[in-house]
Amino acid sequence: AKAAGRNGAALFETTMLAAAENTLMLERDLGNALDNDEFALHLQLQVSPDGQPIGAESLLRWRRADGVLVPPDVFIPIAEKTGLIVPLGTWVLRQACLSWLRLSRAGHALPLSVNVSPRQFQQADFVDVVRSILAETGVPATQLIFELTEGLLVENMDATVARMHVLAELGIRFSIDDFGTGYSSLAYLQKMPLYELKIDKGFMRDMPHDVNGTALVKSILAMAGQLGLRVVAEGIETREQAQFLASHGKPCMQGFLFCRPMPLGELISQLEAAA
Ligand code: C2E
Ligand code: CA
Ligand code: CA
Ligand code: CA
């Protein structure tokens, strides 16, 4: 047992070292990725309870020069730490607006949801950046939904709420992403100009078999109903999940069952085929 323990420890150290080296390499590569044009924006359709397209979420993709696709769950936290998320977030917003223009010209003017990270939202000039991208592209603010996470709301509630109101005045709508995984209180939710809650896909995974998850989903739907908010349930992969939701509050849905995240051109083809 002792030997096994020692081997275990050694293995752990090696893994930690590899992970640390890996992070440093990723940090370095990420620093050049924007200049090297290695990012792309994919779009994933969102559908109404009866399956009609209601919008799409923009999801960032990083394909490194060596061809490796690095998942956003890996590089976004690093970009957030190094600060690259600020120029990257600006790039995403402009790219989302350009995507909206192409969709609109193809006859599919769907509102686009854009993930906005806490550090990006908290930049002193964030509102100016949003304003100037809207002016530059001519996209109506009402066609954008900003997805914020509960982390941002916990950290800096008053400043966040004030800034949300300024952007809402412009016409931007707001969604709380991964809802149910953080600690936002009902009192605060009522102070914010909110349009939507997105139920985290973690709660969908074992639905409708997982009793706790199911209860939580039902209570989020009830609460959103009370607050007059739209709900999008994420991570819908099976007919069973969609059917369960259809008989429990009928939220909007997003997931592989309906559409994978894909490049804009493919999404337009898919929308044409369905029309
Ligand atoms: P998120 O905002 O919660 O995005 C939803 C994630 O669920 C996406 O992962 C999407 O591809 C995935 N997904 C969609 N449908 C299904 C499904 O049916 N089953 C499963 N298992 N997964 C599904 P992705 O694209 O890997 O993004 C991961 C996270 O990275 C996002 O989570 C978001 O937090 C962050 N992210 C992505 N793009 C951006 C961005 O432009 N800016 C910022 N700040 N964060 C981003
Ligand atoms: Ca999101
Ligand atoms: Ca989410
Ligand atoms: Ca997430």
Automatic annotation (TrEMBL):
Record domain EAL: where: 23-275
Taxonomic superkingdom: Bacteria
Protein name in UniProt: Diguanylate cyclase (GGDEF)-like protein/PAS domain S-box-containing protein
Species annotation: Massilia aurea
